[in-house]
Design goal:
This protein has 265 residues and is α+β, with helices and mostly antiparallel strands. It is built from eight helices and 14 strands.
């Protein structure tokens, strides 16, 4: 995907997020979906608007969103004959509903078994993270590279969602943390983007869906970081099953972090 198309897509996502999310922030009620996660009017508004905008931009590309029925999602993922948009219209819905200004829109372009392009846009800070395969990652047009922010594991700031870890691993990290300090911000795609920008050093999440990680793992990889699942396998997989995420701002730090999690250090 060339620079002109990246700018065009970024402008679309930016406009929709600023017009549909920000006016509703602190002003909308929410409901719970069958899986216990939250849903607001803002999720649905961004979903509908971007579905329309993306159909005009690339009518040949199919569209998958977190807000679709799982049966429809499965059918879309099985069809690899054409590219597929993968959208999380509001990542960090719990933050959004609670008035916490840490949320984003996440959009990825899937082709077969790969993520080819990703956008993570934070409308509160007007920060637009973009990545295209083999072309690098950018924040508002400025190149991202994590190589200059790589500490040893014992000096690292860790972004960790403790509640989705196994009880044994959670207890081990709380009682004997191998890192300097730990944070959890509550919006997966934006946490990936912050890691790509060097805001934190290692990452751990017990189970992310496709739309949580697709754009983010490409961003981090193109910025020079590395990710895997807890077994060391690629974190991106074209399917609906949640995936554990282990990531860091450099391949060496990612190896040390994974080895610790696997009990090998």
């Amino acid at each position: 995907m060339g620079p002109a198309e990246i700018r065009e897509l970024a402008a679309i996502v930016r406009t929709v997020a600023r017009e549909e999310l920000l006016p509703r922030f602190r002003r909308v009620a929410h409901q719970r979906k069958t899986d216990g996660s939250l849903l607001t009017e803002a999720d649905l508004a961004v979903d509908a608007r971007l579905r329309t905008e993306l159909a005009l931009h690339a009518p040949e590309t199919a569209f998958l969103s977190e807000e679709m029925d799982p049966v429809v999602q499965e059918a879309l993922l099985r069809d690899t004959s054409r590219p597929l948009w993968c959208l999380d219209p509001l990542d960090g819905t719990s933050n959004f509903a609670a008035g916490i200004p840490f949320f984003c829109v996440s959009l990825a372009l899937l082709s077969g078994a790969r993520v080819e392009f990703g956008i993570v846009y934070d409308p509160v800070r007007d920060e637009c993270f973009t990545a295209s395969r083999n072309l690098g990652a950018e924040l508002n047009g400025n190149l991202l590279h994590t190589g200059s922010v790589t500490p040893a594991l014992h000096d690292a700031v860790a972004l960790i969602d403790l509640k989705r870890l196994t009880p044994d691993l959670r207890a081990r990290l709380i009682e004997r943390p191998p890192y300097h300090s730990q944070r959890n911000f509550g919006a997966c795609a934006l946490e990936w983007a912050w890691l790509a920008a060097g805001r934190g050093h290692v990452y751990l999440h017990g189970g992310q869906k496709l739309w949580d990680l697709a754009a983010g793992c490409l961003l981090l990889g193109e910025a020079g970081g590395a990710s895997s699942d807890i077994h060391g396998d690629p974190v991106f997989r074209r399917g609906l099953a949640p995936r554990p995420v282990v990531a860091a701002v450099s391949p060496d730090l990612a190896r040390d972090w994974l080895a610790h999690l696997q009990g090998e250090d």
